[in-house]
Specification:
By secondary structure, the chain is mainly β. The chain is built from no helices and 11 strands. The radius of gyration is 14 Å and the shape is globular.
Length: 124
């Protein structure tokens, strides 16, 4: 059994695009190898960068706000308690076009690691 508490969480990651990421379980939070779980907050008007993972499946479960998603050119929205599975190689980006914070859980299998995130230039 591995238990993590708020006092054990690694430092909050604030990305240049506007995400606030807090790992709850994973390589840094509890030395969990099999999967990871993070709480992510995106303020109004912000987004993630377009990116993909070569190895990890990633799932998002929306807790608050509305997520505008782009996955491999397909656009859709998710409301609280709706979820999506993003498979390895799928280029994805999540936006908060609403007036309230977008809060969601992100799970990765295997556990997320920085070397498995690849940003994509979508301006071409």
């Amino acid at each position: 059994m591995i238990i993590t508490k708020i006092s054990d969480y690694p430092a909050l990651i604030n990305t240049p695009s506007g995400e606030n990421i807090q790992e709850v379980l994973g390589l840094q939070a509890g030395d969990v190898q099999s999967h990871s779980l993070a709480r992510i907050l995106i303020p109004p008007g912000k987004s993630s960068s377009p990116h993909f993972h070569k190895h990890a499946d990633e799932s998002y479960l929306i807790l608050a706000g509305t997520a505008d998603m782009h996955i491999n050119g397909v656009r859709f929205s998710l409301q609280p308690w709706e979820a999506v599975l993003i498979q390895p190689g799928e280029v994805h980006q999540i936006f908060n076009h609403g007036d309230e914070d977008l809060v969601f859980l992100a799970g990765c299998v295997p556990a997320w690691q920085p070397g498995d995130s690849f940003e994509v230039d979508t301006t071409n």
